[in-house]
């Protein structure tokens, strides 16, 4: 089994992505997590770029990293300076890493127009820079920036840059598809021609960008052609459309192509690492990410669910547990009996496979979805609905009336007031009348409802609303449209989603709020019994 080195550049090229800005502390936490994933090389940043990157290299030394080797990144020395006089270049040594990566120019237009120097001088710059660094650190990786574009323009020159880096002692020649425009068949042709000149054993790497959506495919193809190192980022973040996504490359290399990478022993951590990095980056984790996304193994169509329950291989390319993910079954208008049976089992509800109740639930869900409800994310509303249809409704209070006054015209700041009449327990209990203010009508209604319930159920205080989304549904025109409200609630470490639909946004919010509070009370009751 051939060994492939994994090189992560989340903290450098990943940090070049729009909306990503890591603090030193963020970088340290990500570095430690990538060490757990047994990534071989971790590019920590460009020490000559800013004090934060420099500080990272200083602080990371205080940590005991078990596997990963930290790499400082920079460019070849400036054309009007030497390695000794170029301060930015010198900062690579001040980072005090054993491994340094520098990028140099392979494309003639970059030499002439960006560096404003001659082709021969660029070759000297590459050779001098690598040789100088080799005298100070144990390993130098040479990133051939724009290699594929450069090769298309002037193959001989692009190859000469590699020869110079190799001659000066670079341990890896990483071919970069910097503009991300290269397609897999071009990667194949060009790498083949590089090997024809440099030999089968040339120590090649690949660094692909995703502008043509081919970064993963290009990286895998490069490995198949002999590259020994793959560079990429967690979840593919990076400059413009991003870099090759290591969270897809790693399982493909291990599980599909049979390569040996250190991360193979801890592949089950992949989903955790992917979500952790985005949590730190403060980015929403895309559900549709292959392997690690929430939807990567989510089955919706009734035909799919029915078959997956018989044999998961029918609609799964691999066992989700291998990459630390989980199978999910969604309930929607596309569901059949199998979806409901699976979901009920997951929720701990025993349903008789043959019972007419299952058909009743399927029909009710299809009817509600046609009205605009969606239960895929609103699993708490779904669970309450199933109990209701089973004849075991979970009801701990009854909202008799509510009124909301929007006082925007009367006060300086935007404020609304709500009053509610709530009966606890439903049907027979005491009627509570409360009023509350809020920064908007929905907030006021929520505050009033909460105030009324807390007297009877103090545990409501533990609960908070984490997210509130309103979606206008197609059908009725303009402001007469129906809306769907989705609420995500949280209590301690438990989260649940609820849904409401109406032409009145307050009514839709109220339905979702009632389900949310009801679910909290149901959970507590279940825990106690
Ligand atoms: C393909 C990649 O992703 S490479 C990494 C890109 N990442 C970044 O640029 C982020 C970090 N960069 C920075 O903080 C800054 O650009 C610095 C500190 C490196 C340089 O800042 P400045 O000295 O102000 O230069 P500026 O950013 O305006 O321009 C880049 C300079 O690097 C030079 N340069 C570009 N590539 C190379 C190279 N391979 N070798 C030597 N010099 C290079 C450019 O010619 C330009 O020099 P000039 O100012 O004499 O024209
Ligand atoms: C080096 C690098 O980040 C690139 O060429 O894309």
UniProtKB/TrEMBL annotation:
<dbReference type="InterPro" id="IPR002034">
    <property type="entry name" value="AIPM/Hcit_synth_CS"/>
</dbReference>
<keyword id="KW-0808">Transferase</keyword>
<dbReference type="GO" id="GO:0009097">
    <property type="term" value="P:isoleucine biosynthetic process"/>
</dbReference>
<dbReference type="GO" id="GO:0003852">
    <property type="term" value="F:2-isopropylmalate synthase activity"/>
</dbReference>
<dbReference type="Pfam" id="PF08502">
    <property type="entry name" value="LeuA_dimer"/>
</dbReference>
<dbReference type="Pfam" id="PF00682">
    <property type="entry name" value="HMGL-like"/>
</dbReference>
<dbReference type="InterPro" id="IPR005675">
    <property type="entry name" value="Citramal_synthase"/>
</dbReference>
<comment type="pathway">
    <text>Amino-acid biosynthesis; L-isoleucine biosynthesis; 2-oxobutanoate from pyruvate: step 1/3.</text>
</comment>
<dbReference type="InterPro" id="IPR013785">
    <property type="entry name" value="Aldolase_TIM"/>
</dbReference>
<dbReference type="Pfam" id="PF22617">
    <property type="entry name" value="HCS_D2"/>
</dbReference>
<dbReference type="InterPro" id="IPR000891">
    <property type="entry name" value="PYR_CT"/>
</dbReference>
<dbReference type="GO" id="GO:0009098">
    <property type="term" value="P:L-leucine biosynthetic process"/>
</dbReference>
<dbReference type="InterPro" id="IPR013709">
    <property type="entry name" value="2-isopropylmalate_synth_dimer"/>
</dbReference>
<dbReference type="InterPro" id="IPR054691">
    <property type="entry name" value="LeuA/HCS_post-cat"/>
</dbReference>
<feature type="domain" description="Pyruvate carboxyltransferase">
    <location>
        <begin position="4"/>
        <end position="274"/>
    </location>
</feature>
<keyword id="KW-0028">Amino-acid biosynthesis</keyword>
<dbReference type="InterPro" id="IPR036230">
    <property type="entry name" value="LeuA_allosteric_dom_sf"/>
</dbReference>
<keyword id="KW-0100">Branched-chain amino acid biosynthesis</keyword>
<dbReference type="GO" id="GO:0043714">
    <property type="term" value="F:(R)-citramalate synthase activity"/>
</dbReference>
<keyword id="KW-0412">Isoleucine biosynthesis</keyword>
<protein>
    <recommendedName>
        <fullName>Citramalate synthase</fullName>
        <ecNumber>2.3.3.21</ecNumber>
    </recommendedName>
</protein>
<comment type="similarity">
    <text>Belongs to the alpha-IPM synthase/homocitrate synthase family.</text>
</comment>
């Amino acid at each position: 089994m051939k060994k492939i080195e994994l090189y992560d550049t989340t903290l450098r090229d990943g940090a070049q992505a729009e909306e990503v800005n890591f603090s030193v502390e963020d970088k340290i936490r990500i570095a430690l997590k990538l060490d757990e994933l047994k990534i071989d090389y971790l590019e920590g940043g460009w020490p000559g770029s800013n004090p934060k990157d420099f500080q990272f290299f200083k602080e990371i030394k205080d940590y005991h990293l078990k596997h990963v080797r930290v790499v400082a990144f920079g460019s070849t020395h400036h054309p009007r300076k030497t390695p000794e006089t170029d301060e930015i270049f010198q900062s690579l040594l001040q980072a005090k890493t054993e491994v340094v990566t520098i990028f140099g120019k392979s494309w003639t237009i970059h030499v002439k127009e960006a560096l404003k120097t001659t082709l021969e001088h660029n070759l000297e710059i590459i050779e001098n820079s690598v040789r100088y660094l080799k005298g100070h650190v144990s390993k130098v990786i040479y990133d051939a920036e724009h290699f594929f574009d450069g090769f298309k323009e002037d193959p001989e020159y692009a190859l000469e840059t590699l020869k110079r880096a190799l001659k000066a002692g670079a341990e890896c020649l990483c071919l970069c598809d910097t503009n991300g425009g290269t397609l897999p068949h071009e990667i194949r042709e060009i790498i083949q021609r590089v090997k024809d000149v440099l030999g089968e054993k040339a120590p090649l790497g690949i660094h692909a960008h995703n502008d043509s959506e081919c970064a993963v495919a290009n990286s895998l193809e490069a490995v198949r052609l002999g590259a020994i190192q793959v560079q990429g980022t967690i979840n593919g973040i990076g400059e413009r459309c991003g870099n090759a996504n290591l969270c897809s490359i790693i399982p493909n290399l291990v599980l599909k192509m049979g390569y040996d990478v250190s991360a193979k022993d801890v592949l089950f951590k992949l989903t955790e690492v992917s979500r952790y990095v985005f949590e730190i980056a403060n980015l929403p984790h895309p559900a549709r990410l292959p392997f690690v996304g929430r939807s990567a193994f989510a089955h919706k169509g009734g035909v799919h669910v029915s078959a997956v329950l018989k044999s998961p291989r029918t609609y799964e390319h691999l066992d989700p547990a291998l990459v630390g993910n989980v199978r999910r079954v969604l309930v929607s208008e596309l569901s059949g009996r199998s979806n409901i049976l699976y979901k009920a089992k997951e929720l701990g509800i025993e349903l008789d496979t043959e019972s007419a109740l299952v058909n009743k639930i399927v029909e009710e869900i299809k009817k509600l979805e046609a009205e605009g409800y969606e239960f895929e994310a609103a699993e708490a509303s779904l669970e309450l609905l199933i109990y209701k249809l089973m004849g075991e409704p979970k009801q701990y209070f009854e909202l008799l009336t509510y009124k909301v006054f929007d006082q925007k015209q009367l006060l300086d700041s935007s404020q609304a007031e709500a009053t509610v009449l709530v009966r606890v327990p439903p049907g027979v209990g005491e009627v509570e009348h409360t009023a509350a203010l809020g920064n908007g009508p929905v907030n006021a209604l929520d505050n009033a409802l909460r105030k009324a319930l807390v007297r009877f159920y103090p545990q409501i205080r533990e609960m908070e609303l984490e997210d509130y989304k309103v979606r206008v549904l197609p059908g009725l025109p303009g402001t007469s449209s129906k809306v769907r409200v989705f609420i995500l609630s949280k209590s301690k470490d438990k989260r649940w989603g609820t849904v409401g639909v109406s032409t009145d946004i307050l009514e839709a919010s109220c339905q979702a709020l009632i389900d949310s509070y009801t679910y909290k009370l149901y959970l507590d009751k279940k825990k106690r019994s």
